Amino acid sequence: xxxxxxxxxxxxxxxxxxxxxxxxxxxxxxxxxxxxxxxxxxxxxxxxxxxxxxxxxxxxxxxxxxxxxxxxxxxxxxxxxxxxxxxxxxxxxxxxxxxxxxxxxxxxxxxxxxxxxxxxxxxxxxxxxxxxxxxxxxxxxxxxxxxx
Amino acid sequence: xxxxxxxxxxxxxxxxxxxxxxxxxxxxxxxxxxxxxxxxxxxxxxxxxxxxxxxxxxxxxxxxxxxxxxxxxxxxxxxxxxxxxxxxxxxxxxxxxxxxxxxxxxxxxxxxxxxxxxxxx
Amino acid sequence: xxxxxxxxxxxxxxxxxxxxxxxxxxxxxxxxxxxxxxxxxxxxxxxxxxxxxxxxxxxxxxxxxxxxxxxxxxxxxxxxxxxxxxxxxxxxxxxxxxxxxxxxxxxxxxxxxxxxxxxxxxxxxxxxxxxxxxxxxxxxxxxxxxxxxxxxxxxxxxxxxxxxxxxxxxxxxxxxxxxxxxxxxxxxxxxxxxxxxxxxxxxxxxxxxxxxxxxxxxxxxxxxxxxxxxxxxxxxxxxxxxxxxxxxxxxxxxxxxxxxxxxxxxxxxxxxxx
Lengths: 148, 121, 274
Description:
The complex is a heterotrimer. Chain A is an all-alpha fold. Chain A has helices at 15-18, 25-51, 57-67, 71-98, 116-119, 121-144. Chain A is extended, with a radius of gyration of 22 Å. At the A-C interface, helix 1, helix 2 and helix 4 of A face strand 6, helix 5, helix 7, helix 10 and helix 11 of C.
């Protein structure tokens, strides 16, 4: 080979996590699972330090909590609640599928193929509905009932 | 540690979190629906919970499980970025040490508040 | 047959490594009679409009796995998809993403085959002597065959890696194809290589970097269902951690059939030539 032709790099990169094609629901559930996971982790680390203010007694606690009473923090907290509700319910589905459940048994592939992903899709829908119920219940609690 | 061991505990920690964080979220955010407390984050309620052995133990358990699950999950995400070997090693150590420090701090807070002398209403 | 077939626009990605700095899209108008596949359209372009257009294809009937391309937002076989079934007025054809582009629609599948080779896609037996100089066939029941046969239908077209989100960023991830093949052999009743293969599969860039996005199974043209295979492999590992998996002994060599006479009229097999 006299000349080495230059290949064009065509790896999708981070865009490939979010979409990049016409795929099934699960691929978007996956992207959302990542985003909510990272959001929860960030909140959790801050949460460890904020609740650490209990060490300083009543004054330090009320000072910290008072700082979080404005609307922005309330909405932010609700976002974390939504993330947890989604991540937890989708996580149940993922744990079950990662353990090989909900997807039937290997079969002879006969056209039209019915993949394991399709077989577990009703569970994904169910989980989304449950998450929606939780999110609405949380919204009621956050903004309507007992709101100061 | 072997990757399969790490992953095994990731799943187990997830199941633990599901129970404990479910409890935590119900107590903290669905309290009005259940009618548990007047104000969940008032100092009196918080300290009353923190000084019960049950809450102290579950706080520490939840802290450990959540730190492990979260940091392993985040490590998974970072490892999928085609990083170099050295970089991956650095992430392993950073997460191990950082996670341990956070755990020690959080567990210390839980135990210290549990044994704090405070008039409980 | 008086009226001419209606036309369809093909938008094809072009990249000439010596000339182009980056790929560009080129449009062609192609007559679309009933039953035209994407591959037929490309062949028509090459014969009538632009002989420089390059791609890989061979059997033109969904068996060889050469012509997987990114067609209208999804990796599919060009030969097994009719233009009329794609929907929309246009056919947009690009090479499979997540592989280097060699030229036009030709992806570089070299890393893909290297990953396939890395998971030892063959039966591993403790008794190497029997493998080298076989005294008979290994026994396998119908049920044991059903356990893995769907995973053995892989034609190595590479569509699954193009759809996989992890492959999109992680160059060292084994990918759905290789991992599914690892399970195909590990779940074979004749195989004894679970531990040996596991060393390649259960690594920081192996099975656990699959998060069941399911896109690989969505796009697989042969119903191999790689996502399913990978989850079964994780289940296997989880059970092993719980101590539920005994070391597997591959099935024995089937005994020679005795007291057997062929039906009348069936010719004898040829003698051994070596």
